[in-house]
Amino acid sequence: MSAIRSTHFPWPRLLLCLAVSSASASVLADTVWLKNGDRLSGTIRVFDGGKLVLQTSYGGNIAIDWKQVATLESDQDLLVKQDNVSGERAKALVPAEPGKVTLANDGAPKTVELASIEQIMKPKPLIEDFTWKGNIDLGIDYKRADKDTDDYEVDIKTQARHGLWRHNVEAEYNREKQNQEETTNNWSADYALDRFLDEKWFWQGRLGYKRDYIEDIARQRTIGTGPGYQFWDDELGAFSLAGLVNRRDFEYATGEKDNFYALTVRWDYNRYLLGKTVELFSNGEVGKPLEGVADYSLDAEAGLRYKVTDWASLNIKAEKDIVSGSDGDTDETRYSLGFGVGW
């Protein structure tokens, strides 16, 4: 009597393979064909400054010279800009003859020259899910003020957004010594809450505090509110302005106090260059008191970050802190070179 062997088709294994294949296809959904015949798969992050950034599982973010691209394919929803102002939203990019790409929309597909494209980025909707980004910078400062000193600094800046609400938090700590003598010891914290009224306009409320153990102005407290405008906020950076009416409280090392109202303008700017390898940034506040307590105040910084990896960067920046016309004038300039992490 011969044995009967029962055979079963391996459906579970097949389904698992299909699932893995589908997941891999979704992760590596974009393809770039080069003029030399090579083909790269990954996810298109951004194109700007002559560099196409392709995120891959095998090499991280790869910056591709745009002049070497023959055509490309993507199933992402992308914004394709052929000038610095307007852009066309494409539901997909379809490969075309060398030197061209087809933009697939709800209407008729449109084929354009690659040379005519200035930027490609993922469009940013008005209402988003929760997003969180920020930087922590550690640096060695070279300071030129009343005293020339070297110091160290920790600077934290983070921003979180959910729907129409955006939270902004900044904190900074500085401590210096010269010939074993403490010449600077201060810290500051700042919180702002933005409520977007539409895609560009928002209303901001802000709280700030600075404690200085060395300078004449020992404590500064700020509470303010006012409108703001978001000029842009996308993969390549952001720029916003806010005009605030602030209540300022100064407490001097002598124990004397001043409080007054001031009109201030705050800015927050960053711009990625060279395929998101280099970041130019600047933020700060300039204010004019409504009373004669001081002539004006300025607290600003500007600098560059160079991304070594996706999360690590080198930074160089300059900071300026001025309170002019008060009983305890402040005029400080700091230059720093440091290391940072970002997310």
Comma- or semicolon-separated keywords:
mainly beta, single chain, 66% strand, eight-stranded antiparallel sheet, 1 helix, elongated, disordered N terminus, twelve-stranded antiparallel beta barrel, 343 residues
Distance between the termini: 70 Å
- Evaluate the radius of gyration: 26 Å
Strand pairing plus helix content: what structural class?
Answer: mainly beta
Helix and strand pattern: HEEEEEEEEEEEEEEEEEEEEEEE
Question: TL;DR?
Answer:
The protein has one helix at 11-27; strands spanning 30-34, 39-48, 51-56, 60-65, 69-73, 78-81, 88-90, 92-95, 100-104, 110-113, 119-121, 131-144, 148-162, 165-178, 181-196, 201-212, 217-234, 237-252, 257-273, 278-289, 296-307, 312-324, 330-342.
Model description:
The longest helix is centred in the N-terminal third of the chain and has 17 residues. With 343 residues, the protein is mostly beta strands. Strands 12-13-14-15-16-17-18-19-20-21-22-23 form a 12-stranded antiparallel β-barrel. Strands 1, 2, 3, 4, 5, 6, 7 and 11 form an 8-stranded antiparallel β-sheet that branches. It starts with 10 loop residues before the first helix and ends with a strand. 5% of the residues lie in helices and 66% in strands.
